[in-house]
Give the backbone structure.
Amino acid sequence: MDLSRRRLALGLAGLPLLGAAAPLAAQPSSLQFLFVGADDCEPCKRWHSNEGHWWKSSPEFSRVDTLFITARRTRHAFDDTYWPPHLRPIRDMPGAPRATPAYFVMRNDQLVLAAAGYTAWRREIYPALREMVAAADPGRALQARS
């Protein structure tokens, strides 16, 4: 299977069940997005200047804890040097992407979705983040679907 299309989806079908009882604004964000890239990764650079810029100005960005892991070289993007110890078990899960750019979505420190490749952002990751944010705040869910 092509690594750029490889993904790990755990419980994504149950998205409506993942919503928190209280809106995320009333509690610390339990939704986390992790971007993994490298300085020598052309698709990563393109993501930052296009999709990343758009992500940071989106309404969902302020509702999701976002972390960027950037290695100097692509071949080192998954080395312990760049990964905080508490995120290494997520990185090491079977089927987790090992190519850049890579995207990991976690809720309550549990992996919900992971994918790699520039196009995975629009195809899988952003739609899932948008739906999870909307599901966590019923008032915003109406706006997101209209």
About this structure: The beta strands are 7-9, 31-38, 65-71, 102-107, 110-116. Helices lie at 42-56, 88-91, 120-136, 138-145. The longest helix spans residues 120-136. Confidence is low (pLDDT under 50) at residues 1-28, 140-146.
